[in-house]
Amino acid sequence: MYVGTQVGARGDSDFEQWAQLGVVNVCSDPPKDAREWTLDDLKSHKEKLAGYGITLDMVQIPLSSTPLDVAQSPNIMLGKSPERDREIEVVQNIIRMCGEAGIPAVKYNMNIIGIPRSERETGRGGSSNSTFRWAKMDQDAPPGIAGELSVEENWERIDYFLERAVPVAEENKVRMACHPHDPYTPPGYMGVTRVLGTIDGMKKFVGMHESPYHGLNFCQGTVTEMLDDPGEEIFDVIRWFGSRKKIFNVHFRNIRGHKLDFMESFPDEGSIDMWQALQTYQEVGYEYMLMPDHVPEISGADAQGTAFAFCYGYITALLQAAGEPRKQAWVTKGP
Question: Which of 52, 102, 251, 268 has the highest count of CB atoms within 10 angstroms of its CB?
């Protein structure tokens, strides 16, 4: 396993910085709407990154974490045909192109209501941290454009997509990594029971249309947000999915708190022993990226870059302590 990132590059200097920091495996998208990608777009982007010594491990297909009213492919989860069939066809074509371009994985979400959060709170040293305090949420928030959706309908729509996408992924040897629902919310919130917001739901999901190319973008932060005692429970959850080779990417982030009451934190200050978590990934033979995600907002001229750089260094140090081999960028750009 190795450090990675999914941060959107603000310019070519970010590619240079990642290579300089030793972050040489990424999830990064070509600079246009994913629904318009061509094979040349993917190949050119991969080649550009290679020029910095960076490997393109993954791209994001047009199924994101945004609410359906602003999503790129809303009809897949709205269950509206024939529109959803056209959206699925776009996804199938992207998977085929990734296979031909040598991009080994894609990540995606099967989201309906987005990522609900309460107001931000002050964290370490005055940082601004994302939180979810169920007691502060509008618990009677009305449904969105999906309306009131039963558990059965939700699973049917997920199944409809997987039935058509997983065989294409398997044929083209491209891993499909699905992000769980962030965060767990009580059944019926905004008209939806988030079936990928529980461990049991995630287990059911990876068992549907079983394939070595069908698994998870395992957001450790999101998974801990499902648990009553995450500091104790998370390691067995990693073991369950990891031992079945269903973890294709890891968002290696921490929280302070537990289900329905948490603050997102820097990796070194949360409720999870991240060293023990990394050892558990190593125990199950996990072999792909560990990437930071949802870092607190901090001060400074390049606040985001600095916060993520801290996380890259933290992950790299843990990997070195665990004896994982360090990847290097051997390509030098510039004069």
Answer: 251
- Give the pLDDT score at 176: 99
How are beta strands 105-109 and 175-179 bridged, if at all? parallel
Task: Inform me whether the pLDDT recorded for 93 exceeds 80.
Answer: yes
Is residue 56 situated within a structural domain?
yes
Assess contact for 298 and 156: CB atoms under 8 A: no
Which residue range(s) make up the domain with 29? 2-321
Mean pLDDT for all residues in the chain: 96
Using alpha carbons, list the distances in angstroms from residue 214 to 8, 61, 165, 248: 25, 14, 9, 9
pTM of the model: 0.96
- Model confidence pLDDT, tens digit, residues 16-32: 999 999 999 999 999 99
Nearest to 104 by CA among 209, 41, 180, 177: 177
- CATH code of the domain covering residue 145: 3.20.20.150
Number of domains in the chain: 1
* Contact by Cβ (8 Å): 65, 179: yes
